[in-house]
Amino acid sequence: MNDQRWLSRNFFIFFFTWGVYLQYWSGWLSEAKGLSVQQVSLIMGFGLVARAFSTMFVFPVASKYLSDKKLTQFLVISALISAILYIPFTNFVAIFIVTMIFSLFYPSLLPAIESNASTLVQQGNVHYGKSRSYGSISFVISVFILSLIIGILGESVILWCMIGYLIIMLSLQAMPAPEVLNMKPTVEDRSQEFSMRSLWKIKGFPIVMVIIILLQGSLASYYNYSYIYLQKYLEVNTFYIGMILNVAVLFEILFFLKVDQLFSKWKTSSLLLLAGSGSTLRWVMIFAFPNVWMFILSQALHALAFAMSHYAFVQYITRNLPKQQLSNAQGLYSALATSLSAAVLTLFGGFLYDIEPGLAFLGMTVATVPAIIIILLTKKSYQY
């Protein structure tokens, strides 16, 4: 199979499941399993910790013993089994335990597929942005379809959709994959030369990682408080909120479709500087002009705030790291940039939201402005 098509297909089906997980999992625990908001918050909070542990330690270690294809298959099977374990349980303790198991396996599929993408890009066979755009497209489709199904059948269908999508993903993993993804790691690949500790010794990597942690973490208030900000503070009809939030994803799709043509020759530092500047402008706009039209306009900057910084990190590790370190880098990215930093800044954003809703967004500049300063101070000396 064509490598580009294979990667696009895998991004597409994974983000179908990701749409279920990010948008509806908390609601399903509350409505279908009858848990209180406090119980759901506790479960999802500890789930983030389990996710961070898995992507930082379990996933990178497993990648040293299994081929990329075998590792992805293992994660899909484990995620499917743990999802099925939810079915008989309705009490808090049992659901908490199952969620910890589920969080150890399912979220690691994201860095696994991203590692596959980085490996294929290194081989010179695929354009990352083109394939990644299929993930963003499927996310929108998944959320739209599931919202319709829930309206007809209720929240209990959410788990069954997740199980069904994972079964489809498993069947696709049984099909032939690009040959480079079938290569089993050797003893040399497990040497200290390619350990996670040695990753931090690569010139420029710690700097890039800190910047990415700041930029991706700064999305915390947007992901967690946009809905209630639009509904409670700007008094937007619930019917329109989903449409407004999807404007960001549409610009994300457009970005990934064109990014390889427009930015493939840019330096990583220039991409990160543009991402940090766009992100800062976005949060200032929302705070300074608290109305729905300015919020909608600011959604266009999601292409910079999220997509540009994500692309910059993928570009950096693809250009500068050996294949043996790609899983380590993706594991760190998932654990630190999209899990732990987001958790910390979510708490900070919540504190600010209680003072004044717009401050929750402006407060994210506490991460973006330092990121910009770090880039300006280091881009020449570290040449990234």
Structural notes for this entry:
It is found in: Cell inner membrane. The chain has 384 residues and is mainly α. The chain folds into two domains: 1-185, Growth Hormone, Chain: A (Up-down Bundle); 187-384, Growth Hormone, Chain: A (Up-down Bundle). Helix content is 79%, strand content 0%. It has helices spanning 3-31, 37-63, 68-84, 92-105, 109-122, 128-153, 157-173, 196-199, 205-217, 220-233, 238-263, 268-288, 292-298, 302-320, 323-355, 357-362, 365-382. Helix 2 (37-63) packs parallel to helix 4, helix 10 (220-233) runs antiparallel to helix 11 and helix 10 packs parallel to helix 15 (323-355). The protein is globular, with a radius of gyration of 20 Å.
Helix content: over 70%
Low-confidence sequence ranges: none
Number of strands: 0
**For the record, what CATH class of the largest domain applies?**
Mainly Alpha
User: What Rg, in angstroms, do the CA atoms define?
Assistant: 20 Å
SSE order, as H and E?
Answer: HHHHHHHHHHHHHHHHH
- How does the major sheet shape up? none
Output the CATH homologous superfamily of the largest domain.
MFS general substrate transporter like domains
Task: Provide tags for this entry.
single chain, 384 residues, mainly alpha, Growth Hormone, Chain: A, 2 domains, 17 helices, 79% helix
In short, what is this structure?
It is a multi-pass membrane protein. The chain folds into two domains: 1-185, Growth Hormone, Chain: A, CATH 1.20.1250; 187-384, MFS general substrate transporter like domains (Growth Hormone, Chain: A), CATH 1.20.1250.
